[in-house]
Amino acid sequence: MSDDPGELRRVSLRGVLLNLLPKVALSRLCGLLAGAPLPRALRAPFYGWFARRYGADLELLDRDLADFRSLQQFFQRPLRAGARPIATTPLVWPCDGRIITCGPVAQGRVEQLKGHDYELADLLGDRELAHALDGGSQATVYLAPGDYHRVHAPFAGTVERVTALPGTLFPVNPPAVRCIPRLFVRNSRHVFHCRLADGRRGAVVMVGAFNVGATTVTAAPGAALAAGDELGRFGFGSTAVALVARGTASFAAIAPETRVWMGDAAI
Length: 267
Prior knowledge:
Blueprint: H1 5-20, H2 23-35, H3 40-54, H4 71-75, E1 97-104, E2 109-113, E3 116-119, H5 120-124, H6 127-133, E4 137-143, E5 150-152, E6 157-165, H7 174-179, H8 183-186, E7 189-196, E8 201-207, E9 215-217, E10 224-225, E11 230-234, E12 238-244, E13 259-260
Antiparallel strand pairs: 1-4, 1-13, 2-3, 4-12, 5-11, 6-7, 6-10, 7-8, 8-12, 9-11
């Protein structure tokens, strides 16, 4: 975080305003609006404007714009076949987006940004799983509003269970991450408890966020996963945290703001 006094004041003011904002109520309202059906004639022009405004790649669609009944359906749009080839490496990126932090998990803590971290057990809501993942590696990826909004398995394995943890709905964009301590453990989230094919423990956390109308879980407990199989969908831009226990493959320690694509090699 910058040492500039003006920047520090702006960060502090942003944090105060975000704490006062009725985040859950406003997010639920936005979710209702985003889920409302649009007249068919308006869909293509509106989604086209959204794509230009937020940088969504319409070349990846598997259907016509007019076939998305609501803005929320457009947020959760699938990709056309072959748009994201899955690498054959043991770890792949779980979603499209930009890296917030990526690297080792040390002493049971995860870096939120440089100089600020949080307890892994608080994120997972499970101390036993946190202990198993300590010493491993993690990748925290921010999905902007224009990104592909589905989250996929970063490794081959099995979903042992999925837990929903309650919380608030702070924004998860970089300015909010810089000014809200322990943001990811304060927001509502879904935790996928996984067992990799090599026996290691793994997890994927889908973190809810302000204006996210819904987080949809699509991988059921007991499901056998190949790397790249879908786990869930966000209703708007949000954040995913992928974790894997210590072993022969770890997430690459790459710089914040690096662009990653679902299915590309992550080691």
